Amino acid sequence: MKKNESDAKTVLxxxxxxxxxxxxxxxxxxxxxxFNYPLEIIQRTMMFDISVLYKVSNLIEDRLILEVVKxxxxxxxxxxxxxxxxxxxxxDARDKRYVNEVNAFVNKNxxxxxxPGMGCDVMGYVFFPKECGGAYLFGGDFFGKExxxxxxxxxxxxxxxxxxxxxxxxxxxxxxAEYDSLTGLYNSRKIKEELSRVLKRLERKPALSASIAMGDxxxxxxxxxxxxHIQGDLVLKEVGKxxxxxxxxxxxxxxxxxxxxFLLILDEIDGDRAVQIVERIRKKIEATQFLQVNKSGKxxxxxxxxxxxxxxxxxxxxxxxxxxxxxDGSAPDTLTDYIGRADNALYTSKQNGRNQTTLFSD
Length: 362
What we know:
The protein is built from 10 helices and 12 strands. The protein has helices spanning 8-24, 36-45, 99-107, 151-178, 188-204, 220-227, 229-246, 271-287, 318-321, 335-351; strands at residues 50-60, 63-72, 86-90, 122-126, 136-141, 209-217, 252-258, 261-267, 290-293, 299-305, 309-317, 357-359.
């Protein structure tokens, strides 16, 4: 039995739609999301029984380790390709079921050796830099005896792999431009852009309000001086994680403003409500036990650090934007003005003993 014939015109049409789909894909989407449409093309348009996506997890001596990320297998032909499973393959392709996976990885191209029954008949290589998570393999399996993969189908897989490599790199570059690599939060430039966007919306819609909070890790220099910069980085990373998990989805964002300072934007709430939210975050950080590491980065067993943070909150509203806070009809307050108010309130928290939240007041 041979694989059902795919139609070159239909495949070409789907490639055009794929190009538009990837171009419009949200840059904040997970890397794996861009593979959903291509997996459907392999399985439904190109008439393979199965389509599969692997992530290259590691290469140890003569063994390639692949993680099965996604599979379209409506008839459950390939029970060996369960999502999350890791395959350990010899680079000399001793297991012929995975000969195309090994060839595609080694040659960094498309491999299409016919594999009767269980084994992918076409497999492509999707480049992604190792420092960004490593490459992907992507292809399809016809479960019959003869796959008869056509030249245009091989070319299609190659084109899809090139599309995907381009979009993954574009997404990665955008994330590097917007996110702090250590904490995973927005970087200073991006969080200021977000605050500017909120202020412009408040100018257009007088009934709305928002708040910002500036947070600072107490005695952070002492942590670096006593335990080393690896420990300091670990603390920053964990604080970033706590802040990220504490934000209300679709409303709030957090960014690393600089050093050990963080800026939070709390949308559609006034200053008093913002203080309540920030206080919950502050108490959560105070209660967290941070792993302790030595100066070489090795975890010290049964040893933990407790840290605290101080916060200052400033309320943003349209009345302030119109200069009413000054009572003189002067120019609207700027992004710098509001950050200055939050920073002023933070300074008050520091002066009053740290580990507290202060709301800015004229």
